Amino acid sequence: MSRIYRYQVDLQGFLYLADAKIRTPATAYRDQKFLNFFLTHLKQRTPDSLATHGDPTFPYESRCGKELNLIVSQDSPIVFQHLLDEGSKDCKLGWAGSLTTKFYPDRIYCNHETGRLYHPMPETHRSVLAPWQKDGSGLGLLRSAMIQMHLADKLDEDSIVWKGVRYPLTFCK
């Protein structure tokens, strides 16, 4: 590897250089093409990668040519930021720059310790686990602003009502 960069993903899904002093949405990476490439190449670091490039505080990597991008996240490295096509039967969750995955209201998970809500990641990323995920569930975090805008009035302490149907939340951790 010729260059190693270190990044952080925050709870809202914003990507920053890890050593950035000021972290606001205005200073986060916003280029959709870059974010799509970066996050579609996201992988859990292997023991070989950890041994070769050290720094176990960065449990994820995204390779780009001769560059090794190391990533740490405050929770899941994949954060679903947008609920798209809410009125249609094929509602989707938006993540990265412009990537989407189908929204399944019957597959919402709640971490009982933090109260955070999660949704299964796309199949291609199910092996990328947040540090607390021990069961291989591959859950992406639902951004709190998205929950407040689209889901808060549909949630209670143990279920979500989506299009007139009540779905129980699955509790994890």
- Proportion of residues in β-strands: 25-35%
> Roughly how much helix do the residues carry, as a percent range?
10-25%
- Major sheet strand order: 2-1-5-4-3
Rounded mean pLDDT is 91
Please outline the helices and strands.
Elements: E1 3-9, E2 15-17, H1 32-40, E3 42-44, H2 47-53, E4 60-64, E5 67-73, E6 79-80, E7 82-84, E8 92-95, E9 99-102, E10 109-111, E11 117-120, E12 139-142, H3 144-151, E13 159-162, E14 165-168, E15 170-172
Parallel strand pairs: 1-5, 6-12, 10-15
Antiparallel strand pairs: 1-2, 3-4, 4-5, 7-8, 8-9, 10-11, 11-12, 13-14
Overview of the structural elements:
The chain has 173 residues and is mostly beta strands. Helix content is 14%, strand content 35%. It contains three helices and 15 strands. The strands form four sheets. Strands 2-1-5-4-3 form a five-stranded mixed β-sheet. The longest helix is centred in the N-terminal third of the chain and has 9 residues.
List keywords for this structure.
173 residues, mainly beta, 5-stranded mixed β-sheet, 3 helices, globular
Write a brief caption for the model.
With 173 residues, the chain is mainly beta. Helices cover 14% and strands 35% of the residues.
